[in-house]
Specification:
single chain, about 140 residues, alpha+beta
């Protein structure tokens, strides 16, 4: 196969892997062109602890009001956990809202597989046609 068909095959294979990871509940890495990061915010301890989570389920920021420093380590830890969980819940909600219509990954995966298989068949036929034409030119048009 030539470079173009290898590139197409690689792109479609990557797409199939991404769809499979989505089916398994894993979050695919954000695409390079993603313009907006989705955020979720959670608070605890009467607003004294605030956590911000971002796309991919990572924590972006933890804010602790100086008044919270008077709490015991155990209480502060509980507030941090509560705020982080609330931020992750908010993130999931916001990501769902920002996601638009739900994608049927099973159907889409089958379509990508069909496209990949068909493109490989076509590229093979095109390559064979070029090889046959080159052979005829070199062989004097047999």
């Amino acid at each position: 196969m030539d470079s173009a068909s290898n590139d197409l095959d690689r792109m479609l294979t990557d797409a199939r892997k991404t769809l499979e990871s989505m089916r398994q509940g894993k979050t695919p890495p954000p695409a390079a062109g993603d313009a907006e990061t989705v955020r979720g915010v959670g608070e605890a301890g009467e607003g004294r602890v605030k956590v911000t989570a971002v796309s991919g389920g990572r924590l972006e920021k933890v804010e602790i009001n100086p008044r919270a420093m008077r709490l015991s380590a155990e209480e502060l830890g509980e507030h941090l956990v509560t705020a982080a969980n609330a931020a992750l819940d908010d993130l999931r909600q916001n990501a769902g809202d920002a996601g638009g219509p739900v994608v049927d990954t099973e159907r889409l995966g089958k379509q990508v597989e069909e496209i990949q298989n068909e493109s490989l068949r076509q590229m093979t036929m095109i390559s064979q046609a070029f090889n046959d034409a080159i052979s005829k030119v070199r062989g004097g048009g047999k």
